[in-house]
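A note from the maintainers: we've had questions about how concatenated examples are separated. There is no special marker in the raw files; a new sequence line simply starts the next protein. For clarity in this README we add a label.
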Amino acid sequence: MNITKPIMFLESKSKLLLLLTIGHGTNDFYSVLLPILLPVIALDFGLNYTEFGFILLITTLSSGVLQPFFGYIADRYGIQKQVVLIGFLMFALGLSGFSVASTFLALIISSLIYGFGETTFHAQSTGFITSAFAENKGKAMGIHGLGGSIGNFLAPISAAFLIAALNWRLATILLMVPAIALIGLLSFNLKNRKKSERLSFTHGLTREIFVLGINFGLIVMFYKGFFAFLPTWLLENGMTLTTAGAVTSLMLIVGIISQPLGGVIFDKFGGRFVFIISSTIASFALLLMMNIDGWFVIFMIISIGGAISMTFPVALAMASALVRGNNTGMGVGVVFGVGSTMSSFTPLLIGFLADRFGLDVSLQLLIILPILAIVMTVSMLPTQNQLISTD
């Protein structure tokens, strides 16, 4: 039985892509929500930078560790829809926990539940899309990335507005609505792909998959460390919460352009080229941002967002190309899982350094990560021709 054949459960591939793009937008809405909520929560609970970073570590670490497992389970038993639905349910439950939390321990437990929500979507949506768009997966994943960028844009500005208009506890309750709506939408429109009963846990995994995961992980480490403390840094530099949310949203909305662009470049020149360009731009933009004043700072923040978001659809497409056999969910889960696990420690490290040396110094140290990513990309990632030969 050929389970790599696209399972057309909608009227057309375009509708499949649209549905998953909406789901991607909602998933990524939640993936960037906490850094906007946490400065206000930290103020209410009297948290320091290290405790702030520890909450984000718990959220991201749970996501990183479990992504490969859920990717395998979904493919092995053909329960991709159920896995995705559980993810959105965990987002809603985590937010409900935040809304009633009264202790630091309650915040940690809520963060753990919330982090489970980030484990499920990317691997499943990548499997659906790359099987349906085998000839131009980079372009399709770039369009899929549009949804993520829109979700990224809406999260900071929505959260900042709701917190300013109401308070952070009521805001977390209202922010559950998109997750609940997606559960309804996907329940009626998404169907499982066929299961692969003989699929082993490590089937199709290669050395290149793990190399890609580590390389991508260095980029995500930079992104998570920068994004986690960007709203706080903007607040400390005189912006209001609403303005900081708007600037953060601008950093994320640029992905509407950069993610499809990254997919197109991947199809033509390969992932190595995208990773090198992204890491180089991010490095110089951070260096300039920390050493200039005025509105040019915002342009540098937007540049960082565009450069990093370019790599996300490329990493997904490369993972699906490098995995052998029918274990796409596991392959993507490994790449995103390794990336998430590595990046989970960055906010804690940045918070620890910020408590001792100041937030400016700790953020400037992030420049080491994209430089390491460039070195690893050049020396270890497969070329486009090598990638095609394994596809």
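[label: protein 2]
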Amino acid sequence: MKMKMKRVDFISELHTKTKRNYVQRVVEHDKAKCAVKAKQWDFDYWDGDRQYGYGGYSYDGRWLSVAKKMAKHYGLKAGDRILDVGCGKAFLLYEFTQAVPGCEVVGLDISPYAIKHAKEEVAPFIKEGNATNLPFEDNSFDFVFSITTLHNFPCYDLEKALSEIERVGKDKKLVVVESYRNEEEKANLLYWQLTCESFYKPDGWQWWSEHCGYSGDWDFIFFE
């Protein structure tokens, strides 16, 4: 049976605050070499020069409004277990402890550097690992989310990651990925990205929902 994709929008306001020169990203540096360095998920990606990734990713409180919107939308409460798949430095995970006092947070990321430099208040709750094999029991989290992580997987690992998110979560799940709706957004995405392996329009992500039995929500980042 075809599953209808459920779309929500929690982070477009943050995304659109950043101004990007897409063509400059391609011509100013050797983008292929930058991508190789970015995919090491080490200092350069998080805190090095902008051509390798974030250009410095430090806590500034911007994710609190996102955590509050998610908490309200999903009715999260004290005692709920929340998992962030691909948590990075866990800034959003920390904000959940502020937005939902008494919740239990868990994060997972592939980057030892990000974990080492995670928000210290939640660092003890972060595991190093891969989304393709989540080290958690079935239905063990009240809310599972993954933001700008799953598009970094090739199709064979994307299938595993989506299936794993479905397995460990109960009824509240959210996946946010980069996408495009037209050729201009596709070109901008290709110019800007450093780590993406899976490029699909929303209807392509819809196909992945059906293929993997993923029952949660989606959100998309578009490069307009």
